[in-house]
Amino acid sequence: MSDKHTRGVIIKKGEPVDRALKRLKTKLDTEGILEEMRRRRAFESPTQRRLRKQRTAPKRHKVRWRYLSSSQDAKAEESSAAANNTPS
Predict the structure, then answer these.
(1) What distance in Å separates the CA atoms of residue 11 and residue 24, rounded to the nearest whole number?
(2) Which residues contact 48 (CB under 8 A, 6 or more apart)?
(3) How far is the CA of 29 from the CAs of 3, 25, 56, in angstroms?
(4) Name one GO molecular function term (predicted).
(5) What's the first-to-final CA gap in the chain, in angstroms?
(6) What is the mean pLDDT of residues 17-36?
(7) In Å, how far from its chain's centre is CA 16?
(8) Angle between helices 17-31 and 33-40 in degrees, nearest 10
(9) Closest CA to 68 of 55, 79, 83
(10) For 52-67, how does the pLDDT look when each residue is reduced to its tens digit (9 = 90+)?
């Protein structure tokens, strides 16, 4: 079995189980596993999915936006202006 897909923590000698459990929860939280598990617990309609993706998009694309060229920047401004002018 490969360790590539196994998620867990190794308990150090003399370490309390509480602390190891906290490290595991922190690791799962940073990887987004807990959030995905909660999300999959109930049905998510297509509208709810779209809204969730719109809420998280700025965080996902933050690094990409940091390195935009001037032409990409102008194109992004045009598309956001067009999106803001469309009636809902």
Answers:
(1) 10
(2) none
(3) 19, 6, 16
(4) structural constituent of ribosome
(5) 52
(6) 90
(7) 30
(8) 70
(9) 79
(10) 889 888 887 777 766 6
Average pLDDT of 6-22? 89
Position 81, amino acid: A
**CA neighbours closer than 13 Å in the CB half-sphere of residue 44:** 12
Residue 1 pLDDT class (50, 70, 90 cuts): very low
User: For residue 77, is pLDDT > 90?
Assistant: no
Long-range contacts of 24-27 (CB under 8 A, 24+ apart): none
DSSP letters, 52-79, are HHHHHHHHHTHHHHHT--HHHHHHHHHH
Degrees to nearest 5, angle at CA 17 with 13 and 22? 115
What is the rounded distance in angstroms from the CA atom of residue 16 to the CA atom of residue 78? Answer: 55
Record the pTM: 0.46
Quickly tell me which residue has 């000698």 as its tokens.
13
